[in-house]
Write a structure and sequence with these properties.
Elements: E1 7-8, E2 21-22, H1 35-46, H2 53-60, E3 61-62, E4 67-69, H3 70-79, E5 83-86, H4 90-99, E6 104-109, E7 118-127, E8 132-137, E9 140-146, H5 147-154, E10 161-165, H6 176-187, H7 192-205, H8 210-222, H9 226-239, H10 243-255, H11 259-273, H12 281-295
Antiparallel strand pairs: 1-4, 2-7, 3-4, 5-10, 6-7, 6-10, 7-8, 8-9
Helix pairs in contact: 1-2, 6-7, 7-8, 8-9, 9-10, 10-11, 10-12, 11-12
C-alpha cells in the first residue's frame, strides 16, 4: 500500500574527557566461551529489556565455533525490540556513546592476529585523566584496563563495537544512512510498537531525510495507528514535494473513511507524478481508481 515499505569469545595516550564516563550496565559473569550471551544480557537490561541467558545462548552461541558471530550479536537485540548499530570512530566514537549513557560492546582479540582468541566485553567507562577504561569482562565487573591495552587488543578486530538502544532512542554516533539500514533490519525482527518510535526518533533527528519521514508513517500504519500515520505524512508533505508522500496520505485517509481528503491528496500526488516525480504515476493512478470505486458503492 505504501511507498516504502568474526566469531569469538575467545600505545599512545588519547585525549579523552578528564571525568570518568560510566554507563549503567549490569554485569553478567561468564566463562570464556559464553561471553557473547553475557554481553548481550548486559546491553538488554541497560536498555530496559529483561534478559534470559539461556535464550540468548540459543540465539547467538555456535558450539562448533565456540563463540558468537558478529552478525548474530547485532541481530539478537532486534529480536527484543532494540535498535542495534555498530559504533564508528574508535575510542572517540565509544566515548560519545558512553557520554550518552549507552554501554558499548567491543570485540577484542586477547591473543595474536595469527592465533586469535576472540572475546566480547562491555565497555562501561573511560577516564582520560588516568588513561583507563572500565570493562565488564568474564568474571570481572568494571575491571580497570589501561587504554593502551584496550587499544592493542581491540584494534585486532578493526575496532568493532556496537550499541543497543531502546525504542525512541538513537545511538549518539548514528548517521542517517546507518540509521536507515538498522531500522529496516529492526522492521524484520520487532513489532510496530518498538519500530514506530525508532523511526519517529530518526525522522526527528534528520528532518530533511525523505526516506526516514515516509518510513515513520509506514511504521505507524503497520501498527494500525492511522492518526499518527496521517500526522507524520502531513509533516512530510509540508516539507517535501513528494508524490509518494501525497499518495500515501491519500491511502491513509481512504482507510479512515475520509474520501474527500483522500481525493485531494491523490490529485496533488498526480500533479507531482506527472511532473518531476514520474516513477509514482502508476501507483497514484491505482489510488485514484480505488477512490473512484469507493465513491461508486
Amino acid at each position: 500500500m505504501l511507498a516504502l515499505a568474526a566469531a569469538g569469545c575467545a600505545s599512545t595516550p588519547r585525549v579523552l574527557p578528564t571525568g570518568q564516563l560510566l554507563a549503567n550496565a549490569p554485569h553478567f559473569p561468564d566463562d570464556e566461551l559464553l561471553c557473547g550471551p553475557a554481553v548481550l544480557a548486559s546491553l538488554l537490561v541497560a536498555a530496559g529489556r529483561p534478559a534470559n541467558l539461556a535464550q540468548l545462548e540459543a540465539q547467538v552461541y555456535l558450539p562448533g565455533r565456540e563463540g558468537s558471530l558478529q552478525a548474530e550479536m547485532l541481530a539478537a537485540p532486534r529480536r527484543h525490540g532494540l535498535l542495534s548499530m555498530t559504533v564508528p570512530g574508535g575510542l572517540d566514537g565509544v566515548a560519545q556513546e558512553l557520554a550518552a549513557g549507552n554501554p558499548v560492546a567491543l570485540l577484542l582479540n586477547l591473543s595474536l592476529p595469527f592465533w586469535p582468541r576472540w572475546h566480547y566485553v562491555v565497555l562501561t567507562g573511560l577516564d582520560g585523566a588516568r588513561q583507563e577504561a572500565r570493562l565488564h569482562s568474564g568474571m570481572q565487573a568494571n575491571a580497570r584496563w589501561t587504554l593502551a591495552t584496550l587499544e592493542s587488543t581491540w584494534a585486532r578486530s578493526g575496532h568493532w563495537a556496537f550499541v543497543a538502544t531502546a525504542p525512541g532512542r538513537l545511538p549518539a554516533t548514528a548517521t542517517a544512512a546507518a540509521a536507515r539500514q538498522a531500522l529496516l533490519a529492526l522492521d524484520r525482527s520487532a513489532t510496530p510498537a518498538d519500530t514506530a518510535p525508532a523511526w519517529a526518533a530518526a525522522a526527528k533527528r534528520w528532518p530533511d531525510d525523505l526516506t526516514l519521514a515516509i518510513g515513520e508513517a509506514n511504521a505507524w500504519v503497520a501498527g494500525g495507528d492511522w492518526a499518527a500515520a496521517e500526522a507524520a505524512l502531513l509533516r512530510t508533505t509540508g516539507r517535501f514535494e513528494s508524490a509518494a508522500a501525497w499518495n500515501n496520505l491519500a491511502q491513509v485517509r481512504l482507510r479512515t473513511g475520509n474520501r474527500e481528503g483522500a481525493l485531494a491528496a491523490a490529485l496533488r500526488a498526480q500533479e507531482l507524478a506527472t511532473g518531476t516525480d514520474t516513477r509514482w504515476l502508476d501507483a497514484v493512478k491505482r489510488t485514484l481508481a480505488e477512490i473512484g470505486a469507493k465513491a461508486g458503492r
